[in-house]
Amino acid sequence: MNARSATTAENEFLPRAQGRMAAQVAKKHIDEVLAAIRSKGVPAEVIAEINDDNKEVFEYNGKTVSVIPNKPSKAELEEVRKKA
To answer: Residue range 2-15: average pLDDT?
Structure first.
């Protein structure tokens, strides 16, 4: 595989016009949903898990690759207000 076709965690989380989609699925339905998607010849993977942590943590091969807070920090809000 060359660098252009290699799939990396960064590639998976950046939106592109390549038909990639994400869906929120209840934990009890994951296997059923993955099987249905894969039965159509489409690759599918679990990339995140919802919890009560108030942030989104993305892991790839056992490593955390991105943490996105669901609420901006005070510093981030101040920066946005300065630009407005």
So the answer is: 56
| Cα three-residue angle 30-32-34, rounded to 5 degrees | 65
Question: 61: exposed, middle or buried (C-beta count within 10 Å: 0-12, 13-18, 19+)?
Answer: exposed
User: Is residue 2 assigned to a domain?
Assistant: no
Domain count, the chain: 1
Nearest 5 degrees, angle CA 71-CA 81-CA 67? 30
Calpha distance 6→21 (Å, rounded): 18
- Cα separation, 43 vs 12, in Å, equals 12
Find, among 81, 59, 55, the residue nearest to 68 by Cα: 55
The answer to whether the predicted template modeling score (pTM) of the entire model surpasses 0.85 is no
